[in-house]
Structure prediction request, 521 residues.
Amino acid sequence: MLHFQVQLVNVDRLFSSRECAMWGANEGGIMVITHKISMDSPNFSITLPSISEQHTILRQLRHELLLQYRPILQQGAGPIRVMARMVAELEKRCRQLHITEEVMQDEIVNRTIGDVNLRLITECEGEPGGPGDYRMMAEELGIALPDEDINGYVAPGETYLWLRNQMLECERLLLSEGFDLRIYDILAVGNPILRGWLAEEMQRWGISVTREQVYLGLGAMDSINKVLCGLSQMYREQGLTDVAVLFPEPGFNIPEWQARSYGYRLLNYQTLPEDHFKITASQLEELLENDPHIRIIYLTVTNNPTTFAYSPTELDAINAVVSRYNAAGREIFILADLAYIGTGKPEEDQARMATFTSPDVLRHCIFVSSLSKTHSLTGERFGWVTVGRADIAAAIAAGWSNSMAALPADWQLRYMAYVRLIRARPWLVEKLRALYKLRRQRFIAQLQHIDKEQHLFEHIFVDDDATVYNWSQLRPGEDAFSLFEKTGIAGVPGSGFGYSDEFVRFSIGVIPVPEIPLTIP
Prediction:
């Protein structure tokens, strides 16, 4: 995890390329904002091992931790957290042994978490300061502080300050409309102006809704949790005691834990590689026929972890199945996770969303959206829910009012400021999409290069030009642990997504990918 540390240092100190200096209040000193883990003064009495010895020590540590953590995973612990903890512990031990950052970067490549850290972007295609200088994105998205050094690009911090001014303007706007964020929001679904703006964003996809059908959430996970909570209350009021949720696998598994906590029965369905890990209409038809209690289908339109997206034809077929059951009197909802809609080709994403626009389809849909991946704002937790039917929106509102007294005031103001920023800079999405594509292609090339030398992969999948991941199949006898030991690349086992551990998901988000020529079969 990235931490800022600020301290006074002597002006004669030489700055590394990853520090930026700001004049402090004390004469003769400067304030330094650094991205380094620690700024403790080095202990020159310590004799460091040679570089080759450090590599050997690190590999031995890595082997020992693999032996320690493999049983933990086999006992059923969450694979994503297990792998992330293992990597964090290895890095901690390395620093305790004074292993250099350069050696650690060579031997530890953390690709477990799907975050995109704008402060760690190093890629610059073409001229510095040009359209391909991705280091500028921390400035363009308001993350970089004034005079912060982003790998050689010194950000002015103008967007950072602009966002704060917009928060002030948005609060004045809300007060002028009679809405005060500093007191209880009775429904706890968020302020009406922001909900109206987000309804307009859904209308751009062709989804005809009003602000009364849009509720705010603290990211997609919180939004899904609130929907499941609200629906469970609705089903209890209807006297339904056995309600099943269909989860195609592999898939994002947090909603499964959430559904279980509200008393839903889970039906996990293993999709097939030949279907690109997507449930088909015929498979869905059979499942619904065999289990009359399935009332919710969790569908990630562009999938995490597989990176494959449903085509418009596939979505039309699925919606047709659900519509037939609804027309026959069996109410079934599609809980559509749109977290990665916007990371794919714009015209293809538009075509996918067009499959939900007809009234017969929209009435059985509940959409969950987020700015976390489309705009790399994972820490901001900007999410929202769009309900296709106004009466269902009203029925599930208890999922909000029963989980919090009101959504945080300053969070809503920052959310509003970001909506204004995104509208003012529509090119941000395309620039981020280009960065994701660049990294995915580089990472596939890196895996191909590794496989040519070590023969670890059965299949390195080429994505549907979307998401921040790669999904690949390992050869028999290999798993995420053996891959980490042999290559230093830490991914997440397939069991973290309800699938086989012969598959592994990698994130291209947190750290850059070295450039190797790509070979696409």
